[in-house]
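User: Structure with NAP, tokens only please.
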Amino acid sequence: MTIPTLDATGKVVVVTGGSKGLGRAMALGFAEAGADVVVASRKLEPCEEVAAEIRDMGRRALAVSCHVGDWDQCAALIDATVAAFGRIDVLVNNAGIAPVAPSVLDVSEALFDKTIAVNLKGPLRLTALAAEHMAPGGSVINISSKASLHPTSLTLVYAAAKAGLNALTKATADELGPRGIRVNAIECGTFHTDSLHASLPSEELQARMASNVALGRIAAPDEIVGTALYLASDASSYLTGELILLDGG
Ligand SMILES: NC(=O)c1ccc[n+]([C@@H]2O[C@H](COP(=O)([O-])OP(=O)(O)OC[C@H]3O[C@@H](n4cnc5c(N)ncnc54)[C@H](OP(=O)(O)O)[C@@H]3O)[C@@H](O)[C@H]2O)c1
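Assistant:
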């Protein structure tokens, strides 16, 4: 038996929200593992910066501006990827937002629509379009959240959107499985990013959150990347429709 590795040499990987936070860590991590990477988010310039870092590593990279809640822009992202690289092996649906409303009555239609658009509507369309360019062995990785399992009044719409993403993961895994395309989700606990620091600005609040984690600390984004490399590789060739809770215990 050949032991599968996490090597991603020659794979074409699309990462949404790839300009910063976890998406940036994913884009650089996949490049380090040998992949060519498409870095997408709304603002092109930060994507170009990540793409330049990837090219410095000797890989190919493409930066694309894409609002994932807009299906025409989703189509343009997939078209640009295929025009540049000829195929897609891995889609990481990472772009996400978590706006907070003080109460259910304060949830505006605009907040509801944009939270669902970025966390759920975009991933659905991108999965459908990307799968058309995937050969057997293709992998879709949805970045979900522990919030989907433990919703609170503060995470109301976000948690509902991520719970929808969990359902989407299972349903698309079912549909795409016969084509050899696997779909899985990572339900992340808390990790350090700008958006976390904006919502938990004080070290005291961060320490309180860390005290609820078995490992006693908030994760670094890099600590999520290994699981994504696993889900993209043959090491997980019989794993699909799974929601992996990655929260430090
Ligand atoms: N941080 C945490 O503790 C945590 C915990 C659980 C799950 N998650 C999930 O992990 C993922 C990454 O979170 P993060 O903390 O790394 O986020 P982040 O640092 O806020 O970065 C978000 C990324 O998404 C992009 N983005 C935002 N809206 C977009 C849109 N409409 N279309 C395309 N791209 C968009 C942003 O770039 P632009 O502004 O240029 O669009 C940016 O690249 C999200 O799905 C989040 O829900 C995070």
